[in-house]
Write a structure and sequence with these properties.
Length: 383
């Protein structure tokens, strides 16, 4: 038996217990067996579906191939005569069934485990050097061995490569933003384009609420805003934003502060790009995408009036994806704006350009195809 912070498995010299690592917040598996190059994909998939984890002791690249084979089995359609997948009665149910399937798939594929040395090295044949990727996500090694799922390690490697390569941003003249692990990446550039093209109410001061990578702060600075204050609560986001604005040459214009939404004071422009989907995150790193009960959205709206200078504007960047899924109505959004003592003075719209918007095979294709991202220009309503 194991708890959420340690993993125990049978070894030749008796049970061994080490630290369990999971950025997704997944508890350590309770049942663990040793697996190696002789373990078949069918056996591995059956054990994983039963809740038994496989601690890998073979060739690292073979573990990757095994994981790919398990993924193919997870994606197989039911055999003829088997139980058909439940049909969704509404877009909201389709969304929840999609997330449920994703969660089940993640749990199953997360059962292939890789042992890590105290310096995050992997002592398996043909294993890559993942130490830098692990340190970027987990911090400096403590010298203690640990175990993590292969699927999560591959995610760390992918995030490390994105951080090294960066994401070019057209609104910054093609300059590159380097996202940290767990910080929302500006790969969907349409929301950045909205901030780049909407007329500024002032060039004196702007607040960027939930700055993330700092991309919107950088765009505002590039447009001539003399002082920008970007806020966030996440330690990775704060470090990421500071590095990006410094790398882009805007450190003298942009100040990054730790804050719950708003910094002290008022500004003639307050910008916020909250998570767009009002659903419960399945893991801590999903808070960049999901806003449970629209807490950040409503917090921004409710506090905006008290942080706007007279005549100032609040820019809310929000997709209507949740509306097409039936998770939030346009009437509810407009009602929250009115309740917060605000009024809409303009709106800029843009269509998404990401591949899923034109993929009819996507289970949420209908909602994605209809999606529009908007920049809502808000002002304090005259009493």
């Amino acid at each position: 038996m194991t708890d959420q912070s340690t993993l125990t498995w049978p070894d030749t010299e008796g049970p061994r217990t080490v630290r369990w690592r999971s950025e997704a917040g997944v508890p350590a598996p309770k049942r663990v067996v040793i697996a190696d190059d002789t373990t078949t994909a069918d056996t591995a998939y059956r054990l994983a579906c039963e809740g038994t984890a496989l601690l890998w002791r073979g060739d690292y690249q073979n573990a990757r191939q095994l994981l790919q084979a398990m993924a193919r089995r997870a994606e197989r359609k039911p055999r003829k005569g088997g139980a058909a997948p439940k049909a969704a009665a509404s877009p909201a149910e389709a969304f929840h069934l999609h997330r449920q399937a994703q969660s089940q798939r993640a749990r199953t594929l997360g059962m292939v485990l890789i042992p890590l040395e105290g310096d995050f090295g992997i002592e398996l044949r043909r294993a890559p050097d993942v130490r830098a990727a692990c340190e970027e996500a987990w911090g400096a090694p403590d010298g203690e061995p640990s175990v993590a799922s292969l699927r999560e390690i591959l995610g760390l490697i992918g995030a490390h490569e994105w951080r090294k390569k960066g994401v070019p941003v057209a609104a910054l003249g093609g300059a590159v933003i380097h996202p940290y692990y767990g910080v929302f990446s500006p790969v969907r550039g349409e929301y950045v384009d909205l901030v780049a093209r909407t007329p500024l109410p002032s060039e004196e001061l702007a607040f960027d609420i939930g700055t993330g990578t700092g991309v919107l702060s950088a765009v505002l600075a590039s447009r001539g805003v003399k002082r920008v204050i970007g806020t966030d609560q996440d330690a990775r986001a704060l470090a990421c934003a500071k590095e990006n604005v410094a790398r882009l040459g805007y450190a003298s214009q942009v100040e990054v502060q730790e804050a719950d939404l708003f910094p002290p004071g008022r500004a003639p422009l307050v910008v916020c790009n909250p998570p767009w989907v009002p659903a419960r995150p399945a893991s801590p790193i999903e808070y960049a995408v999901f806003d449970p009960e629209s807490r950040m959205l409503r917090g921004f709206l409710d506090g905006l009036k008290d942080h706007l200078e007279p005549g100032g504007e609040g820019w809310l960047i929000l997709s209507d994806f949740a509306e097409h899924l039936g998770l939030r109505t346009r009437e509810a959004l407009v009602g929250w704006i009115v309740e917060a003592g605000l009024e809409v003075v303009g709106r800029e719209d843009i269509r998404p350009r990401h591949p899923k918007a034109t993929d009819p095979g996507d289970p949420l294709h209908r909602a994605r195809a209809a999606e529009i991202t908007s920049l809502w220009r808000l002002k304090a309503r005259a009493e």
